[in-house]
């Protein structure tokens, strides 16, 4: 199963793709499952779960990216929103209460609220060892090193904020075609992360477009 577990839509407030556009992109490149992990909302994820019903070849894993008081955590497999601003420990407990899994995205990138840039370590279910939005490779390398040292399952994800970047980094999960099987396999470390960085020109284009948008909104 090839999955991209960290994708943003227009409901994140800082991304451009709609859930339907992202589903179409994911299907076109052969992904088996995706997670719409918008910032502090499940709206995009819930819409995607409705949109995907007409397709039989791709799964939508319910998800969101939560801003804790120390950094970001991606929650997969949850059934309701978790409020931002809680401690990482409280957030992970709430995720587990819903039988979800907690993934630390971009764990060492301070300017993107990487959790392990602010705290030394805590128990989580997986960490992103490949995030395609890293311009330089050091943070991915450091995350991979921690994954090996602490035996934490690894995840590859695009962290896409525009449709063309979906699938830049992915995870190969040894699982059956079901959300439950995917989550269980991630927890058991049956994952391999691979992919490429989002090309720098595309990231710069995204940043410029956001700045232009803010000017017009102002």
List the total number of helices: 6
Helix content: 25-40%
Distance between the termini: 44 Å
**Got a strand count?**
10
Residue-averaged pLDDT, rounded?
91
| Beta-strand proportion | 15-25%
- Largest sheet, described in full? 5 strands, mixed
**Unreliable parts:** 211-218
How would you spell out the order of helices and strands? EHEHEEEHEEHEEHEH
Structural class, from secondary structure content? alpha/beta
State Rg.
16 Å
Largest beta sheet: strand ordering? 3-2-1-9-10
Question: What is the approximate shape?
Answer: globular
What does this structure look like?
The protein is α/β, with parallel strands linked by helices. It is 32% helix and 21% strand. The chain is built from six helices and ten strands. The protein has helices at residues 19-28, 43-51, 88-97, 138-150, 179-187, 200-217, and strands at residues 2-7, 33-36, 59-60, 63-67, 72-76, 101-104, 126-131, 154-157, 169-173, 191-195. The protein has a five-stranded mixed β-sheet with strand order 3-2-1-9-10. α1 links the parallel β1 and β2 (33-36). The longest helix is centred in the C-terminal third of the chain and has 18 residues, at 200-217. The protein is globular. The termini are far apart. Mean pLDDT is 91; it is low at 211-218.
């Amino acid at each position: 199963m090839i999955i991209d577990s960290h994708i943003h839509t227009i409901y994140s407030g800082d991304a451009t793709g709609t859930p339907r556009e992202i589903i179409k992109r994911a299907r076109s490149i052969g992904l088996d499952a995706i997670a719409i992990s918008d910032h502090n909302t499940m709206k995009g994820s819930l819409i995607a779960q409705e949109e995907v019903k007409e397709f039989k070849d791709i799964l939508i894993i319910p998800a969101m990216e939560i801003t804790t008081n120390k950094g970001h955590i991606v929650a997969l497999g949850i059934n309701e929103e978790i409020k931002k601003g809680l401690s990482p420990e409280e957030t992970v407990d709430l995720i587990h209460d819903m039988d979800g899994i907690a993934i630390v995205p971009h764990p060492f990138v301070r300017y993107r609220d990487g959790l392990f840039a602010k705290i030394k370590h805590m128990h989580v279910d997986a960490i992103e060892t490949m995030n395609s939005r890293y311009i330089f490779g050091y943070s991915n390398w450091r995350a991979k090193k921690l994954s090996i040292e602490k035996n934490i399952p690894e995840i590859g994800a695009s962290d896409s904020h525009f449709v063309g970047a979906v699938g830049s980094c992915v995870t190969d999960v040894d699982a059956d075609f079901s959300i439950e099987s995917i989550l269980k396999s991630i927890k058991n470390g049956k994952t391999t992360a691979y992919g490429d960085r989002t090309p720098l020109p595309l990231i710069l284009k995204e940043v410029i477009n956001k700045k232009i948008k803010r000017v017009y909104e102002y």
